[in-house]
Fold:
Amino acid sequence: MSTTTTTTAGDDNKWIGKRTVRPDGADKVTGRAAYAADTNMPGMIWGKVLRSPHPHARIKSINTAKAEAHPGVKAVVTAKDVVDFPIAKSVMLGIQDMRWMCRNVMAREKALFVGHPVAAVAATSEKIAAEACKLIEVEYEVLPFVIDVEEAMKPDAPVLHDHITFEGKPSNIAGKLEHKLGDVGEGFAKADVIIERSFRTQPVHQGYIEPHACLVSVSDGKATIWSSSQGQFMVRAMCAYLTGIPQNDIRAIPAEIGGGFGGKTIVYLEPVATLLAKKSGRPVKMAMTRTEVFHASGPTSGSYSKVKLGATKDGKIVAGEGTYCLQAGALPGSPIRGAAGCAFAPYDIPNVHSVGYDVVSNRSKVAAYRAPGAPIGAYAVECVMDELAEALKMDPLQLRLKNAAKQGTKAAHGPTFPRIGFVETIEEAIAHPHYKTPLAKPKNGVLHGRGVASGFWFNAGGESSAQVNVNEDGTVVVITGHPDIGGSRASTANIVAEVLGIDYRKVSVLIGDTSVIGFSNLTGGSRVTYASAMVVTQSTENVIGQLKARAAKIWKIDPEAVIWENGEARPAGDNAGKFEPMTLGQLAAQANATGGPIGAGTQLNTTGAEGGFATHVCDVEVDPELGIVRVLRYTSFQDVGRAIHPGYVEGQMQGGAAQGIGWALSEEYIYDKNGKLDNPSFLDYRMPVTSDLPMLDTVIIEVPNPKHPQGVRGVGEVPLVPPLAAVSNAIHNALGQRFYSLPMSPPKVLAALESKTAKAA
Amino acid sequence: MAKLHVSTTINGEPQEFLCDADQSMLDVLRGPLGLTGSKEGCGSGDCGACSITLDGRLVCSCLMLAAEAEGRQIATIEGMAGEELHPLQTKFLEMAALQCGICTPGVLMAAKSLLERNPDPTEHEVRFWLAGNLCRCTGYDKIVRAVMETAADMRGGAR
Structure:
């Protein structure tokens, strides 16, 4: 078994950088933690969604009379009950457009994909709700449909939205984004080697194990929503927009979340359940089945892309050009910014032209998925990099090192990089035993190969709030506004314990609902540990200021003459006077006598997140008889700035690598000829299981972010960016044959090998 | 149709419930019995989040009819810890072998069942025994390591 290594920049901390036990840990290993589907209420009834059987159909009429008359049915809702946002006018909430969101949660003029909600029923049991859904009569005018991105871009393709035009004509191209740096024409003219290739990827689902679920109670016009999401404030705002209930009358309570990976950054069920609860006067619970999750939530885009790189013969890349066509699904909003923006960002290329097209087609609307778009962008660029290295007869990591972005490099998507740690990820990879170990020789026809790839993600700051309260017994309660999706409470506890100088076990970390903590943006974009560390640190420092003032009051000296050290107030020096140090517990016990409760809150729009980089090395074996590719060894090298809790940092790196391996080798949305998803189950949508993977080694590199109190950079997104190309390049290294389409599943590998054999014969 | 009356033993305690003939064990655990530690990730036996043991045998409770519990012994995640956490639970926390935690109850039930049969599993054996438990967060690395380390600790403790 190989090992996981950690490099640590400086180790004078007591808790930061330590593998503490997460505050919510015991609940999660004993089954006590309450996820969205685990809560019930007295008088609760069940909601079910009626979904479109057609990929594209005009809804001519909906008759709900029979469903409403069905015994046990308490409410039925359709698009008439959802706030209407006219289709031609944008209504933005962050990056989400409410005119699309209102149509995604409930089809309005047209059903746009198989599984699109058309109506919903609340009844006294799930069974009755499902029966009643079948009694709803929907008159459809079935329309021609289009599924694939290249088909959808053709001039004669069925058009989903009449008001969307591109270059003056009705079109499925809903948006275009362009990044330009220098002059690519001039750049390519200087190149000795130019390689241009096209790539295809299939939509893949985030694959969280917890299906979407919620419980909503509406009483006296006020709604309480328990749901699993990546942001209770997002749930509140979207439900307010879509139901018309003002934000002050909505309390959104974050349940424990059973995975999201971006897929829970928008609402599906919550506004529907709210409307059903309002209409029925009863609390309504809704939970998707796994089939519904696959049909109607997520996934991320499938894509068609074309990338061209040019280099001089000494290996300097002089120009890069990329076109990324991404499926948005039925409603606009594919992650073209991530694809076109991140693709070339790891490299110092003077001339770049990167274009993204947002293309609608009759499949479920995409949702964010871990570094949205960036894996698609990197897949194409990093595979072309591999061919470029081959053509230049250079080691692929040396080619990356030679062209690596560093402090001062101007990125095509805008920023000039500050101190970043990309070079370090490549250097560590080159020096690592994994890269130096020779590959095994072919045995029984099984071939071995090694591939590398790098990746970039923007990272994010944004709004966060935290409250730090000192309890009467000297323990501490911290409340933040970010659902804890992968151990962020542990990081928060480490930081507060470190700053206060107390044992981390004296720090409880809770996630506040919308009524108890200030606005906090989504758990996503690799922003939570980054941003919450800032507000938590500032709050804790404020608390320390108060503690020093209380000690000063007790000692009758100037607050400036008190210092805080190892969890105690002490006189700054002999001149300040001779007093025994006072612990947090002692000061807390006297709080009321010295001025009242001790606590502080901070609310910030955080900035300075800066980008994150990683380099991955992957070894595979390919069985040419079966077409099966197995990953044998995998090592991720990532600059994380500062690992507040190395266990959960490694966990992010490993989890992202595993998802990337699945994307590369086995996961895909498969549609039948009727435009219906053919594999909406975990049996047929093949995510990696334990026996598919080796240990996933990690090397944490810490180049501290100078703009952050602890030096943190985002961690969670980058790990999904390099794997698609790392696996692809490893397969080429094994077989001597390149694949330009994902997933590289056994039937595709076999077909490619057979056509190669046929050509040779 | 009238409900069926079932007498069974859950986590060592006698338990009675009423259920429909077509109701799954998972539904009854999570619904009337209030044992929501077993999770529904798929309802089709593919994810293992609802893993329990039936007379000591690991099963997906979503694939078991509740009526089949009659006269049998059922163990769920809620019964795994005694006064202290089970060594697997402790190790999972120490080694950060969970992130979101939704698969964790099922993984722990499966891992406990493995160690009861095979106190010294190889990595290969752990990976194939746990292949029916999907985890999307961890990439399984820390889960496999935690199971193997727990096995080593428990073997050491038994000597």
